[in-house]
Amino acid sequence: MARFTLGRVVAGAAAVAVAAAVVGVAAGATTSHDDNTGDARRAIVGGRARHVIMFLGDGMGDSEITIARNYAVGAAGRLTMDKLPLTGEYTTYAVQQSNPSLPEYVPDSAATGTAWSTGQKTYNNAISVTPGDVDLPTILEKAKAAGFATGDITTAELTDATPAVLASHVNLRGCQGPADMATCPDDKKSAGGPGSIAEQMVDHDVDVLMGGGKARFDQVSDGGPAAGTSVTAQAAARGYDVVTDAAGMQAAQPGTKVLGLFSSGNMPTEWTGPAATPYTTDTAPNTVPVRCTESNPDRPATNPHLSDMTARAIDLLEAQERHGSGKGAKGRKGFFLQVEGASIDKQDHAANPCAQIGETVEFDKAIGVAVEWARSHPDTLIVVTADHGHTSQIISPPQVAAHHTPGGFQTLLTKDGAPMVVNYATVSPVPAASQDHTGTEVRIAAQGPQAANVLGITDQTELFHTMSRALGLE
Amino acid sequence: MARFTLGRVVAGAAAVAVAAAVVGVAAGATTSHDDNTGDARRAIVGGRARHVIMFLGDGMGDSEITIARNYAVGAAGRLTMDKLPLTGEYTTYAVQQSNPSLPEYVPDSAATGTAWSTGQKTYNNAISVTPGDVDLPTILEKAKAAGFATGDITTAELTDATPAVLASHVNLRGCQGPADMATCPDDKKSAGGPGSIAEQMVDHDVDVLMGGGKARFDQVSDGGPAAGTSVTAQAAARGYDVVTDAAGMQAAQPGTKVLGLFSSGNMPTEWTGPAATPYTTDTAPNTVPVRCTESNPDRPATNPHLSDMTARAIDLLEAQERHGSGKGAKGRKGFFLQVEGASIDKQDHAANPCAQIGETVEFDKAIGVAVEWARSHPDTLIVVTADHGHTSQIISPPQVAAHHTPGGFQTLLTKDGAPMVVNYATVSPVPAASQDHTGTEVRIAAQGPQAANVLGITDQTELFHTMSRALGLE
Predict the structure, then answer these.
(1) Partner B contacted by A85 (CB < 8 A)
(2) Which of B1, B25, B37, B60 is most worth mutating to test chain A (most A CB atoms within 10 A of its CB)?
(3) Is beta strand B103-104 parallel, antiparallel or unpaired with respect to B257-261?
(4) Which domains does chain B have, with CATH numbers?
(5) Residue B67 reports pLDDT greater than 80
(6) In angstroms, what separates the C-alpha of A180 from chain B's closest C-alpha?
(7) Residue A326 has what pLDDT?
(8) How far from chain centre, in Å, is Cα A32?
(9) Is the pLDDT of residue A373 over 60?
(10) Does pLDDT of A330 surpass 90?
(11) How far apart are CA A243 and CA A237, in angstroms?
């Protein structure tokens, strides 16, 4: 069996061969001893895309991917993201705010988000501004200006760094809502600034915004024409259909802008399980392999899953592409959509392997939705990557008391029926302290027009150019 | 500037375009905003290779590569290995000896070596035998039988797992010399077995064997026709030129088999520097950025470097290819060469970032030798990969005493002039206890015929098939 399941060849001015990976989580081995040279050659497609769908697994380094694969489909199984045909690794370093000629080897999601969304390196905490705090045009802004519909969805607060970098500019990522502006006084609307991240995102008229963070949007603007009203109310006044649950999301009118705020803060995780803990004895609970709980009592049943949000975002953007929105609307040239699996990172920080894996599995399911859609839309560039590496490592069982693991760990029973020990040890104590990002290069995988530009070792900033070229923006 | 510096197109029955990466360590950024689609397409070459040169960075996960890059050429710089055009990641898990249907998620170099050299998964410690201890034919054995010259070189003992898997079969990797057979009594020559790893390697008549481990070869066989003589003496009797230093290596007669034993045990590291230590205070020595010492007082000046060994091995194998060896010799069909950078792993075990980086840099220099040679030999498949991931991570400076790193770390001053903190925390205490391998997928990069088969997510066993196909062995 060929490793890449290739879709039909689309005839046309440029014959376009699209590698359409099989959707869903595959069970069992998919390895092949066949020569994939021809498939690889056919997967390389130049030219333009009408659609760019970018998947950002926050903190999803190669170690995090392997952990999720081993647990969910077994070591010889393949996730959907594993089936994208063209792959590379990219560097993720930030630069120092005080001296931007020097790298900061361990980046955050703000600096890395600025890198992929604007093509420019900046310092940790910066949201699409230069080290000198000059606004940088983003891929979403450029796509919108060129006539594309735009979408930006996440499992975090919508005002969190990754979604924020596409549609706001502020020098500190913490300035999320109008009441969070103590550290960004010049940006306040009352000071004549562009306002908080929430205010800016709504003012950007992004067609589809979905995630958590309702509490940020419910804060009240302190200046500008809408002073005294909440950002949520402002969104409604601008024509947004503001929805707060899965039913509302499904009921939203195609052709209307949609603001989905499904949770007060970050959306609750899909799965739960024990956090990593330090070594105590060879028979302690963290040495006994456990299965994760594939649900979360704190997650309301009305919360949509990221895969549902992705499917609905594609529907809504496709409607915008066909018909535009509002009176006398024209169709759009296509769309740009960013989908973030945010809590892979957040649960790596929390040293919770089950919650981390559950988020990775749901993120992978969301990728499957886009890959399936792209089967009938071969003019689509799909990119799957991470912003930075993280803590978790697969280690051997720490059976010898004198030489145990120095951080914390938890043993899981995988799909294979074998024990897998996941170690967290960048910050002490585990799990009380938040674990740290790492500076490793991370995977980038792609299919569709321009996808070959992810091959080899690239820098995160090049992704901005790859996506821009695909949309004909440069 | 195109990311891949492509060599000339070779006209012929099949036009062959070879991506010849620039040799040597590049300074400064090599990123590009150009569309590399055409270069990528030209880098995909099917068909056969006359030469396969495989580089195995032991324990060289993506984190280890990033650490070496940041230190040696800067975050925006590129190592030679970074310039190979076709890239993927592969899975490295072993299987459990007691139940081979279950994976062992953290593998060793023996199981992983068996995987890439034979195409079969086995248990940790096994040298090219099945979980049932049946010998598995190796890529080197098959290449030799098909008329190719063969080489196997390392910075470790030649009897260490990675070089061993190509030319010996034994159920425990510790059975390195005739005096090390207590755990492998049935394999002893006196028991009618094939003997230790050292004995088997010489009996295999591999054309070029170079590395450390002279003490193993100086042990005396206990049975067989050569009972009572050392393996070194047996090699000489079989026609090997046995050399023990760089001068001897250079003086070896082309057309003669060469056994280079440059060190009693593992070859000493290229660089030295402080090992990682636990957090004590925010001003402790491990928090102060240091440069590595790019030399080692314990390394004899007569020791060849891995890049010199690689250049000489290629010379000698090319001579074998042209003329063969011995009376009435015929030329060979080409050659297979394995080059191991062994002490990347060994210094990761030792939590010594400088020594680890120095080994990675020298390994990269060796890759440069092959890439340069391949410019004029486009019928060459070059593969660069690792056998498994390892411990080291790039983390933020652990400045807050209450939330310090739980393992050990050392801060280095990189080529960029910026501090990089390298963390070791899979096993405690650091650095006294040996750090642990990890189970992460690792990078595989390639150029030349069949190189496109490394794209995507593959398994380590597929590399055996890729190399076999390149040599026309399957």
Answers:
(1) yes
(2) B37
(3) unpaired
(4) 49-470 (3.40.720.10)
(5) yes
(6) 25
(7) 62
(8) 30
(9) yes
(10) no
(11) 14
DSSP 3-state of B361:
helix
Taking contacts as CB-CB distances below 8 angstroms, the residues of chain A near B360 are none
Q: Any chain B CB within 8 A of the CB of A48?
A: no
Three-state DSSP class for residue A20: coil
Closest-approach residue (CA) in chain B for A397: B106
Q: What is the pLDDT of residue A3?
A: 44
Put simply, whether the predicted model's pTM sits higher than 0.90 gets the answer yes
The model's pLDDT over A272-287, given as tens digits with 9 standing for 90+, comes to: 999 999 999 989 999 9
């009203």: which residue's tokens?
Answer: A229
Residues of B acting as catalytic residues: 109
The pair of structure tokens assigned to B24 is 């040597």
pLDDT at residue A157 is higher than 60: yes
**Is residue A109 among the annotated active site residues?**
yes
Q: Which of A109, A117, A325, A343 is catalytic?
A: A109
| pLDDT confidence of residue A325 | 67
Cross-strand pairs, A9:
A17
**Between chains, do B438 and A37 touch, taking CB under 8 Å as contact?**
no
A22 touches chain B (CB under 8 A): no
SS3 B387: coil
Tell me the pLDDT of chain B averaged across its residues. 92
Q: Looking at this protein, which amino acid is placed at residue B71?
A: Y
B6 touching chain A per CB within 8 A: no
The confidence score (pLDDT) of residue A96 equals: 97
Closest residue of A to B29, CA-based?
Answer: A459
Mean of pLDDT values over A318-324: 90
Does A401 score more than 80 pLDDT? no
Does A46 sit within 8 Å of B44, measured CB to CB? no
Q: Evaluate if residue B329 carries a pLDDT over 90.
A: no
A302 shares contact with chain B (CB less than 8 Å) = no
Segment B179-202 shows an average pLDDT of 97
Long-range contacts of A202-206 (CB under 8 A, 24+ apart): A202/A231, A202/A234, A202/A235, A202/A238, A202/A240, A202/A259, A203/A238, A204/A140, A204/A141, A204/A144, A204/A167, A204/A168, A205/A144, A205/A238, A205/A257, A206/A140, A206/A144, A206/A150, A206/A151, A206/A152, A206/A166, A206/A167, A206/A257
A96 contacts on B by Cβ (under 8 Å): 418
Dump pLDDT digits (tens) for B209-231: 999 999 999 999 999 999 999 99
Among the partner-chain residues A62, A394, A405, the one whose CB lies closest to the CB of B62 is A62
